[in-house]
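Hi,

Apologies if this is the wrong queue. I'm a grad student, and the batch job for DUF4304 domain-containing protein from Rhizobium leguminosarum bv. viciae produced an output file that my downstream script rejects. I'm not sure whether the problem is my script or the file. Here is the sequence I used:
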Amino acid sequence: MSAAIFDNSTAYAARQVSQVAKITFRSTLEPGLADLGFHRVEKFLYRSDGHGAIQHFLEFQLWGGPLNYVLCDFGMASADGHRFAVECLKLYGGVSYSWENWVPRVFGVWCQVGRFCGWGPRSSLKLNKSEMHNISDRALRDIRDMILPKAKAVTSLEAFADQILKDEPWLPWITSHGAMRAAEYIYAARRIGTDPSTILSAIEPRAHPDVKSGLGRNVDAFAFIESVLSHRL
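Support response: The file is valid. Your script probably expects a header line. Output copied below for reference.
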């Protein structure tokens, strides 16, 4: 083989390796997410608008060594309700929430997609470089067929408040931030004119362990609920 042919073959092989290296989970996933109406706002965080008063989010996390598993959360939030909940947590949730380095998630109500859709151990999909398209296709298909149909009716504060209170398999309290979820419910219910006593009777059964699980050790769940109920909108 001549030196020129050898050099060309080596260069071709290098280009092929380079192209394979560029095939990542994100690069195979994002076109499909765009088709579903989700656009990237951070590295692995995507948002979908156009759902009335409610925003939809998808957040992916890569883990394992070296980053060989992926998990996904589907979240819902009212932008104003989320700001209200964060403010209440900083004031009434305990010392850790008042620290400057506390960074809240952009949603406090979420579904663990892999948990509901049966992705496998630790609710994750195993990443494999040679099957990256198949893996992203599985994630997109489950989100499209099993998650979004359940969320599509949640477009108003009324529907959001109703959904938050439920403890359905796809959106259970156990996978959400209990205190944040409670505060977002209280915000939505107050905004739509629900009587405070009705709100209290609806949310108090969730005080333990759900709401308490998201609070500081020395914070009483019932006191937190009452503080949020009286906090200015």
